[in-house]
Amino acid sequence: MGEAIEDQQVPPSPIPGQGRIERPPTKVGWHIASVYRCGLLDAEPVNRAIDAAFRMLDEQDFNRRSHFVEDRFENVYLDLSHMPALIPVMDQAIACASLILERPSEALRFGFWFNAMAPGQSTSLHTHEEDDELLSVVYYVTAARDSGDLLLYDGPATVRIRPEAGTFLFFPPDLPHAVETNRSQEPRLSIGINIGPR
Ligand SMILES: [Fe+2]
Question: What is the value of pTM for the model shown?
Answer without folding.
Answer: 0.86
